[in-house]
Protein: Tetratricopeptide repeat-containing protein
Organism: Streptacidiphilus jiangxiensis
Amino acid sequence: MPEDTPLIRSIRAAVATAPTDVTLRLHLAELLLAAGRGEEAVAEAAVALQHEPANGDARTLMLRAMGAPAPAPAPAPEAAPAPPAPSFDWSQAEEQLSDIVEPRFVDPLAAEEPDGEPDEPGWDVERSEVTLADVGGLAEVKQRLQAAFLAPMRNPELRRLYGKSLRGGLLLYGPPGCGKTFIARAVAGELGARFLSIGLSDVLDMYIGQSERNLHDIFETARRNAPCVLFLDEVDALGGKRSNLRHNAMRGTVNQLLTELDGAGADNEGVFVLAATNHPWDVDSALRRPGRLDRTLLVLPPDAPAREAILRYHLRDRPVAGVDVGRLVKATEGYSGADLAHLCESAAEAALLDSAASGEVRMIGTGDLTAALKQVKPSIEPWLAAARNVALFANEGGIYDDLLAYLKRAGKL
Ligand SMILES: Nc1ncnc2c1ncn2[C@@H]1O[C@H](COP(=O)(O)OP(=O)(O)OP(=O)(O)O)[C@@H](O)[C@H]1O
Ligand SMILES: [Mg+2]
């Protein structure tokens, strides 16, 4: 996406504080269009139309934006924007806004950086904007999360009492696209902690010792930023179950992770480790021993309330009219969160193409969404098939009892 000019940035900030102000939003759309950013102008005009479907200016602008030529291929980020409409007085507009828009974007982390200390290279620490209240449905998952993780973590007294037994972390597992990453982020929000998310495949390095050093750096970064949720995604990348050769090469990395989790020689106070995998059966068994990633949490495909929350979320900024969410929720049993996002996108695309073809702007309706259901199918079937085998034949010590219960409930056994 091209970088915003200062004016676009100010108006965008103003729109963010007054999202229902249609005039302001159309102003933004107009500027985007003038800068050759037709698609973004379409999106803003669409939101304006959602608030005021009969607004003539919004409709005209939408049509102009849809007819606008695509931006030149791969423009340099600093490429000069298309010349603005000659009738528009930029400096006056900027002046008008100068005292409305305040403050410009500030980065809380950068602002709090102790003097002179450079930013961490490579590992990005974020602040989490979401909490468990943003996670739709999944009452059971949230309840277990509270009991197994949040309650003891929130309370330093309890933490001390539990001592070593609270070391290690919680392993989230489940089918792809069903909210593991989202939940980890929400946990950081709940704890008021920072969020450091790492895909383990990015840590692994072919040079001897480098993977270990990377892991150590990551834990050190988390410790410096405590309280911090350290989210280790794809922990199965460390798994050695598949080949012994890989297993040997990984041994050092697994051991390093164990050392870091145990906090040997370091203080892990305020570092909350969450790990995730789609394939818990490939996670190195050493990592799953008591005191390590021993507590597991099955993150299930979204239930009805979760699907409703996800659908509403993905339609919130789109020009929808009279969408029967209840009906869609019923028709999307077995869809993952990612599938639902895809569904909404397909429907929006169809409505937009239709509008462009007919020259008549129309809203996204239930019809577009049900039509999209024919193209977008649930993607988690292959996962369920694999999970079924594991739950039936490799449920040692009952570690997959949750999974077994879910498969039974869902009629997949
Ligand atoms: N219960 C929920 N409530 C609200 N949104 C959800 C919920 N579950 C999933 N989502 C949404 O679904 C999308 C996919 O979720 P996420 O990326 O967290 O899945 P994942 O399990 O981490 O997937 P992967 O295995 O591919 O890493 C996200 O955009 C998230 O916002
Ligand atoms: Mg994820």
Summary: The first helix runs from residue 6 to 17. Residues 180-181, 233 surround magnesium ion (ligand 2) (CB under 6 Å). The CA atoms of residues 251 and 344 lie 44 Å apart. Confidence is low (pLDDT under 50) at residues 70-80, 82-86, 109-119.
